[in-house]
Structures are given as C-alpha cells and as structure tokens.
Amino acid sequence: MATRLDPQIHTSLQRGLVIPACPLALNAQRQLDERRQRALFRYYVAAGAGGLAVGVHTTQFAIRDPKIGLFKPVLELAAEEMTRANQTRAEPLAGIAGVCGKTKQALEEAEFVRHCGYHAALLSLAAMKQARDDELIAHCQAVSEVIPLVGFYLQPAVGGRVLPFSFWSRFVEIENVVAIKIAPFNRYQTIDVIRAVAKSGRDDIALYTGNDDNIVLDLLTPYRFQIGRQAKERRMVGGLLGHWAVWTRKAVELLEECQRLIRKGGDIPAAMLQQSAEITDANAAFFDAANNFAGCIAGLHEVLRRQGLLEGTWCLDPGETLSAGQRDEIERVGQAYPHLNDDDFVRQNRDEWLRG
Is residue 122 in some structural domain? Predict the structure, then answer.
C-alpha cells in the first residue's frame, strides 16, 4: 500500500512554505564537505524555511553517479539535520527528496528516501524525454505507490522536457500526488499546469512556484478559469526554488508579505511589483540567464561563498563553473539591492552553524 502524506505536513504544504532546493557543499578536491553541508541545512532551518528539497537539480544530479557515490550520504545527512531540528520545532520540516531516472531507478530511489524519512518525492522526468504520455503516467503512478509525489515541470534549458496540458490533466488524477513544483520558466506552460489542477477539482494538491524568474508575481497572482459553469481559482502557495537557497531569510519574509497581501485583498502595492523586478534581476545574475543558465549552480555557490557558508564554487563537473562576467553580475545585483540579502543574519549565526 502506498505511503500517505503525514497530515501535519499536508497542512503545512497547503498553507505555503519556503523550501530551498539545497546545494551541494564540496571542498577543493570536489569531495563532500560535511561540515559546510550541515551548516547549509542549519542555515535554512534557522532562516525560517518550512522544508528542505535535497537530491534535486540544485544538489547536482551527478551525485547519483556510482563513481561519485554521494546520493545516499547527502540524503542521509539532510535527514539527520531535519530530525535534529524537529526536536525543537512545533511543526516538522517537510522533507522533499529528488527522485530521477527511468522507472527501475526511480523506484529504487523512492524506496530509499522513504526509508530515510522523507515525506514526498520531487519526481523528475528528464530521463524520459522521448516517452509518450501513457509511459510517463505509468511511471509516475508506479512511483506514487511507494511515496507521495510532488510533480515537477523542469525547464528544458536545464534538462527538462515540455509537458503539455494533456499530460498534466492525467497526472493530477494520480491519487498520491500532493503538490506540483511549476518551473518551466514559461508563462504559457505554467498556466497549463494550473488549469489542469483547476479542471480536476482537486483542492488537495498544493501549487509551488519553481519559476525563479517570476517568483513574486507567481505568488501574488490569482489564476481563475471557467470550468463548466463555475469559475475556479487557484494560487501558488509557496516556493520550492533554487533561488531560495540563497538570501533565504529574506525569502521567508517575502513569502510572509505575499501571504499577508493576499489575505488583505485589494490592489498590490507598486513597491511589490518593483521588488518583483529586482528579484528577477538578481536571479538572472545567480542563474546566469545571459548564458542559457550554464552557471546556474556555480552562481548560487558564489553567493554562499561570499557569505562564508561555502569555501568555494566547485561543482562535481569541473566544467561547470561561473561564466565569464557572472561574478561581476552577482556583485552588481548585491550592490544594487542590499535590502534583498541576508548577509547580516548569516554573519551573526554562521560560526554556530559551522560548529560540528
């Protein structure tokens, strides 16, 4: 029988959380830096994140390479830190584990992360680029029988594939789907997903933005569709984002403000629209949009390096580095938008997080 989502975690996901997509901390030899990896997890918890997403794109899919052998150690490390944090929390952290590969691999990963205590799997379909909808749905259904699913629309520029409305209409019929991370970096494709959920009539699927280029507007926009004779409205309630792996304390404040404005109703202040553009500009630097996202992971590492949380920007692939001019762009947005960073918060707490 499929594992069902813990009711407390379901309530939290429905309310809306900040869930950073966690980076991988490496040393100069491109080996796991356990001390700094733990410090990263502790930073996110202290910053107010409501969950952690580990083993996802930002953690680097190459951790699954048998020669590297980091998938299990990193997932276990994160699980340990979440268990530790939950001992002093009123509300447990939502543990989201990335699950990849074709069906055999995905099932093995799903079994492992369930055993580790993760609540749900963020299911990447990047390994099935040529599969038809029938194959994709059968794959998703099989994994859902092991662990609750968070659907994942990953943008094609970083390894995803186009997933049409027809796919999402069938995906939301899978009973054990609990949330969807919508990250195609495309407004048309974003609407495809939300319309499919609205049409399904399911109110138990939480919608999370993964569109790092459109965070604020995603969180503030009411998506309303005419379904038969009824108007159905859905909203994105939180974010599962690589962008929120940096400046996380400010991300928590941002989500709280967006939720406050939605409760209040009325017009959205112009200042929030301005901040939306500022955050998108910062994301362009972090994610290296100018070079088709080639430096997206190294860019996040650079922000964390500047704060002293990471020692360097090393990735598992030596060819995965900052692009020419990307460091200057990160410097530019840091100076242009000092109100978006949480440098002071990190500076005050970093040594504690880094202690064993």
Answer: yes
- Asked whether residue 341 is domain-assigned, the answer is no
Distance CA 285, CA 287 (A): 6
**Which residues on neighbouring strands pair with residue 209, listed in sequence order?**
182, 239
Closest CA to 43 of 223, 327, 236, 310: 310
Flag whether 99 is in a domain. yes
- DSSP state letters, 187-222: HHHHHHHHHHHHHHT-SSSEEEE--TTSHHHHHH--
CA 20 to CA 18: how far, in whole Å? 6
Single-letter amino acid code for the residue at 329: E
Residue with tokens 């994610």: 287
**pLDDT 10s digits, 10-30:** 999 999 999 999 999 999 999
What is the three-class DSSP state of 19?
strand
Domain that holds residue 45: 7-268
Q: How far is CA 110 from CA 47, 78, 124, 153, in A?
A: 28, 16, 12, 18
pLDDT in tens, 47-87: 999 999 999 999 999 999 999 999 999 999 999 999 999 99
Spatial neighbors of 321 by CB under 8 A, at least 6 apart, are 295, 298, 313, 315
**For the domain that residue 210 is a member of, what is the CATH number?**
3.20.20.70
Decide if 120 is inside a domain: yes
Q: Print burial letters for 75-96: b (CB count within 10 Å at least 16), e (below 16).
A: bbbbbebbeebeeeeeebbbbb
Q: Kindly state the tokens that stand for 45.
A: 């918890």
The structure's pTM equals 0.97
- The total domain count for the chain is 1
